[in-house]
Amino acid sequence: MIALVGVHTIQELWDMFGDLKMDPKVYVKHWLYRIIALIVIPIVIYMYTFKIHFAILNMSGDGDANMSSLFQANLEGNDMSKYPLGILENLRF
Questions:
Q1: What is the pLDDT of residues 41-88, one digit of tens each?
Q2: What is the DSSP letter of 36?
Q3: What is the DSSP letter of 83?
């Protein structure tokens, strides 16, 4: 579906490029608005959801074993203080 939107957008911009009656400033505005609406805003939303995710899920839990020990060490309520060797193995100097 995303590819279909992208192909359609490219086709519309190509048709506008061939329209000699269109002012070049209007054509550039079409590019800018589409870059903002189809690239920048989705990326910002995607990154913001990860920010919310990591802000909310900062506690230690059942799925910690799937993560690196360095990641686990930053979680609240972890048992890494009992086993500091796992943290030292991941640090690279």
A1: 999 999 999 999 888 887 777 777 787 777 777 777 776 666 655 555
A2: I
A3: -
Q: How confident is the model at residue 37 (pLDDT cuts 50, 70, 90)?
A: very high
* Cα Rg, the chain, nearest whole Å: 24
Domain that holds residue 27: 1-57
Let me know whether 52 and 76 are in one domain: no
Q: How many domains does the chain have?
A: 2
Distance of alpha carbon 93 from alpha carbon 88, whole angstroms: 10
10 Å Cβ neighbour count for 67? 13
47 contacts 65 by C-beta, under 8 angstroms: no
42 and 76 housed in the same domain: no
Tell me the mean pLDDT in the region 13-18. Answer: 90
User: What is the reported pLDDT for 74?
Assistant: 76
50: which 2 tokens? Answer: 């990860």
